[in-house]
Amino acid sequence: MRLSTKARYAARAMIELAINYRGEPVKLKDIAHNQEISIKYLEQLMNPLRVNGFVSTQKGSRGGYTLVIPPDQITLYDIVHCVEGSLAPTDCVNNPGVCGRVDQCVTRSVWSRLHEVIVKELQSETLDSLAEEQIKKRTLLETSRPQV
User: Fold this and answer.
1) How far apart (Å, rounded) are the C-alpha atoms in residues 148 and 137?
2) What's the domain count of the chain?
3) CA–CA separation, 42 vs 13, rounded Å?
4) Which residue range(s) make up the domain with 130?
5) How far apart are CA 41 and CA 59, in angstroms?
6) Across the chain, what does the average pLDDT equal?
7) Which residues touch 27 (CB under 8 Å, ≥6 apart)?
8) Which CATH number do you get for residue 31?
9) Burial of 34 by CB count in 10 Å (0-12 exposed, 13-18 middle, 19+ buried)?
10) For residue 22, how many C-alpha atoms fall within 13 Å in the half-sphere facing its CB?
11) Cβ(97)–Cβ(79) under 8 Å?
12) Is this prediction's pTM over 0.85?
């Protein structure tokens, strides 16, 4: 199984918002710059996150995006599921009716267990913990750069 660019970039954008959770709204251009994602692509990613109640927008010169839900209450699963939909490796995991062999298929249970492991792992990572990790990595990178 492979996550799409959409899922990876949405997670990175949400981490930026989590880093600035109590501050001013974050402009899309700042997220794009910090995470090296095109603004056009970010606009597409932010729409489902807004529609599903994870982020809100504020217009104007002091506008931008903010998290609606505290970052310690948003998991990586929430973000990925919002932009990707189901993470089941096969259709029969969520909808047994799509396959006439579901009662005799020995691999469906493997696909179901795989799905459970993926969901459990993604649910174990909160946006808050990922933001803390991102801050640490940025600090480490900044202190290890040679001074000019």
Assistant:
1) 21
2) 1
3) 8
4) 5-144
5) 19
6) 92
7) 63, 64, 65
8) 1.10.10.10
9) middle
10) 2
11) no
12) yes
* pLDDT bracket for residue 72 (50, 70, 90): very high
The distance from CA 106 to its chain's CA centroid, rounded to whole angstroms, is 32
Give the distance, in angstroms, between the CA of residue 76 and the centroid of all CA atoms in the same chain. 5
Residue-wise pLDDT for 88-146, tens only, equals 888 888 888 888 888 888 888 899 999 999 999 999 999 999 999 999 998 888 888 77
63: its two tokens = 């506008």
Question: Burial letters for 53-82: b for 16+ Cβ neighbours within 10 Å, e otherwise?
Answer: ebbeeeeeeeebbbbeeebeebbbbbbbbb
Element (H, E) at 138: helix 127-144
Residues with Cβ within 8 Å of 19's Cβ and at least 6 positions away in sequence, in order, are: 131, 134, 135
